TrEMBL record:
Residues 173-611 form the Myotubularin phosphatase domain. This is Myotubularin-related protein 12. SUPFAM superfamilies: (Phosphotyrosine protein) phosphatases II, PH domain-like. PANTHER family: MYOTUBULARIN-RELATED, MYOTUBULARIN-RELATED PROTEIN 12. Keywords: Cytoplasm, Sarcoplasmic reticulum. It is found in: Cytoplasm, Myofibril, Sarcomere; Sarcoplasmic reticulum. Its main location: cytoplasm. Belongs to the protein-tyrosine phosphatase family. Non-receptor class myotubularin subfamily. The gene is Mtmr12. GO terms for cellular component: membrane; sarcomere; sarcoplasmic reticulum. It comes from the Eukaryota. One of its GO terms (biological process) is phosphatidylinositol dephosphorylation.
Length: 717
């Protein structure tokens, strides 16, 4: 039985962007959620354009419960074609993956999105001809390989008026001056120089137009092997040590070529190991970190935990959450990447050693590690404009293959890997461990990850600066000549209005105070650390604690075995690294100095906001971090209003600040999934199977135990 609202009497038309064309549509489509065994849905129209798949109902035009955080480009019921992950059809209650030409058309269409939304569309009451058109259209336009120029990016760029200045204080690194300014900012201009050797892309199409190398490197050396074997500068530490990256030579070469390349590399290493340069440490990331294939496999397994069709599926997986989570290996990969970044930071900070990261093209894991190290060591990279400039420098201009890694053109799944998403996951670990150190919020990171699939911005839709520049020039669709004017994702006003933009800024960011030597020690914040599991075996506590010998088998199975792999980890850090890590964590945190993530055991958490935001069963009503934020913002407003009364001369300036933070009234009505979802349907947890209850019969005293530090819900999220 289908419980639905009354079908729409009035015609609802989609809101089309400049350059957006309606391709196909179907009426009397029901969008529904499965709940308690029955299907509840809303009747509407399903449309497909050259930009998105959209569901239109009578609520689309006017919604009384308007969300505070609304995207102006992609609505709640919109799916960009690049955001579609997989499409399934239901035939006689059996799911089948839909690809290519279809002989038979399904009665239900299930769309799984890359931002982890799941849409169920019932086509049982739709006209047969419309079903054929809409299903074929959606599958064709979202799943089949396409040419680059067929992306909506080009249609929008040629039709939309470009009257925005997208820089927003973000350094784009498209000019020689940008690189020289960065060298000067990091005081690296004594030993390194920005070069113009690749102007016209005469060295390599993979290298950026301008980049930085050690002063002693000649132009002939750069030209010899198309930029391979050349150390390229990423960043300089305050003590002069630098972070470098290098593209390696292909491993399978004939002997004479290998000997020549080896001699060339030896010459380069000798040159940059002499004074004034520091000692050099080389790190081949292809051997010390997981492969791109391993990362892709782990993420594919991981995301399945959150692509939930219905309430029953959620509660079925909830019983074995920890074992399912561990089996994906995703959190372990995050831990290994963070550990590698700590190793590099220790070399730069303590050993005063230059670090050279080596990878096949130096555009994947090199980008992850170099970005993480800069976020950890350079407080500028923890501001919003600084972080955006970092992404521009290391990823966009640095030549990360966004087009291939995100598989935007559906040409090759072999090249697909969530490398940029891995970086955002690692940065989120730091943001949630040290929120006051970052000018941006986790909501900022979440919408940045969503923007990977919005093809009106050029930022994440090219493999290199060369590819962008060559496709930027040429004839546009409407005008006979002239370059395309692409938007950059860093102009957030294109997607959000000022009220929503406030959620991207951290109101509790500890801005850098003016130095006062006499007050420096007392001014630092006290670091409140959560208890973490050491990587080495610790002596058992005499108290009745979590790892007490007689701890029941249920808890051991849920957590003990999971954490055991971290305790007895084969890649236990060497003594010097462990001492560096422990020494830093034993001191108060300077939010504008070095930051080291906690990587012990359960300190590595799931990015709850991104992965659980569409699952109503996972929300905490009136709880979660948003409830805390609501109270803090109320308190800030109260303090600011008192300031107005105390200092009437500056009342206008201060009252202006009051409106710079969103007002979250009545936190009890908010959900932990806010701002992406308001209170959603309640879901009643079903009774556990008898066998599960039998296992739990002897565990009724769990809550009475004085466990020292375990918070199951916190670790799960």
């Amino acid at each position: 039985e289908i419980h639905v609202k009354e079908p729409i009497e009035k015609e609802v038309n989609p809101h089309l962007l400049p350059g957006e064309l309606l391709l196909c549509e179907a009426s009397t489509v029901y969008k529904y959620v499965q709940e308690d065994g029955s299907n509840r849905g809303t009747c509407g129209k399903l449309v497909c354009t050259n930009f998105k798949i959209s569901f239109l109902d009578d609520d689309s035009a006017s919604d009384d419960n308007e969300p505070q955080f609304k995207n102006k480009i992609v609505g709640e019921n919109d799916i960009t074609l690049q955001c579609v992950d997989q499409i399934y059809g239901v035939y006689d209650e059996k799911k089948k993956l839909l690809t290519g030409q279809l002989r038979k058309y399904p009665e239900t269409l299930i769309i799984y999105c890359k931002d982890l939304r799941v849409f169920n569309f019932c086509l049982r009451y739709t006209k047969e001809e419309e079903v054929k058109r809409i299903v074929s259209g959606i599958v064709h336009h979202s799943q089949t390989p396409k040419l680059l120029k067929r992306l909506f990016l080009f249609s929008y760029a040629s039709a939309a008026p470009n009257n925005t200045d997208g820089r927003n204080q973000t350094v784009m690194f498209e000019t020689l001056e940008d690189w020289r300014d960065e060298l000067e900012r990091t005081k690296g201009n004594v030993k390194y120089k920005a070069v113009t050797t690749n102007e016209g892309y005469r060295v390599s199409e993979k290298l950026p137009l301008y980049f930085v190398v050690p002063i002693c490197i000649s132009e002939e050396s750069i030209l010899k092997y198309e930029g391979r074997g050349i150390p390229i500068w990423c960043w300089s530490c305050h003590n002069g040590a630098a972070l470098l990256k290098m593209s390696s030579f292909p491993k399978e070469q004939d002997d004479s070529t290998s000997q020549m390349q080896k001699a060339f590399l030896d010459g380069i290493y000798k040159t940059i190991s002499k004074p004034p340069y520091e000692l050099l440490r080389m790190d081949d990331l292809s051997s010390s970190l997981p492969s791109l294939q391993d990362i892709q496999t782990a993420y594919t397994r991981f995301k399945q935990l959150f692509l939930i069709d219905n309430s029953t599926d959620f509660w079925a997986t909830d019983v074995k959450w920890f074992s399912l989570l561990e089996s994906t290996n995703w959190l372990e990969i995050i831990r290994r990447v963070l550990k590698k970044a700590i190793e590099v930071a220790e070399c730069l900070e303590i050993q005063h050693t230059n670090v050279l990261l080596i990878e096949e093209n130096a555009t994947d894991l090199c980008c992850v590690i170099s970005s993480l190290v800069q976020v950890m060591m350079d407080s500028y990279s923890r501001t919003k404009s600084g972080f955006q400039s970092l992404i521009q420098k290391e990823w966009v201009i640095g030549g990360h293959s966004f087009l291939d890694r995100c598989n935007h053109l559906h040409k090759s799944e072999k090249e697909e890997a969530p490398v940029f998403l891995l970086l955002l996951n690692c940065v989120w670990q730091l943001v949630q461990q040290y929120p006051a150190a970052f000018e941006f919020t986790e909501t900022y990171l979440t919408v940045l990850s969503d923007s990977l699939y919005v093809p009106i911005f050029s930022t994440f839709f090219f493999n290199s600066q060369y590819q962008r520049d060559t496709n930027k020039s040429g004839e546009s669709l409407k005008t006979q000549s002239g370059p395309f004017r692409f938007l950059t994702v860093w102009d957030w006003s294109v997607q959000f209005d000022p009220k929503a933009l406030a959620f991207l800024n951290n109101p509790l960011y500890a801005e850098k105070p003016k130095p006062d030597r006499s007050q420096r020690k007392t001014a630092r914040f006290k670091h409140q650390r959560q208890l973490s599991l050491p990587l080495t075996q610790a002596k058992p506590s005499t108290k009745r604690g979590f790892f007490r010998e007689e701890t029941d088998h249920l808890i051991k199975n849920i957590l003990g075995k999971r954490i055991g792999k971290f305790i007895n980890s084969s890649d236990e850090p060497p003594n010097s690294l462990r001492e560096f890590y422990d020494s830093w964590h034993s001191k108060p945190v300077d939010y504008h100095g070095l930051l080291l993530p906690c990587i012990d055991g359960p300190e590595i958490k799931v990015w709850a906001q991104r992965y659980l935001r569409w699952i109503p069963e996972a929300q905490l009503h009136g709880g979660g971090t948003i409830a805390t934020a609501a109270k803090i913002l109320d308190l800030m407003e109260e303090v600011q209003s008192l300031q107005v009364k105390m200092d009437e001369e500056h009342s206008q300036a201060v009252s202006g600040d009051v409106h710079s933070v969103p007002l979250l009234r009545n936190s009890a009505r908010l959900s932990s999934l806010f701002p992406f979802a308001l209170l959603q349907r309640q879901s009643v947890k079903p009774a556990l199977p008898t066998s599960t209850w039998k296992d739990l019969e002897d565990e009724d005293d769990l809550v009475k135990r004085d466990d020292e530090f375990v918070d199951l819900s916190g670790d799960m999220l």
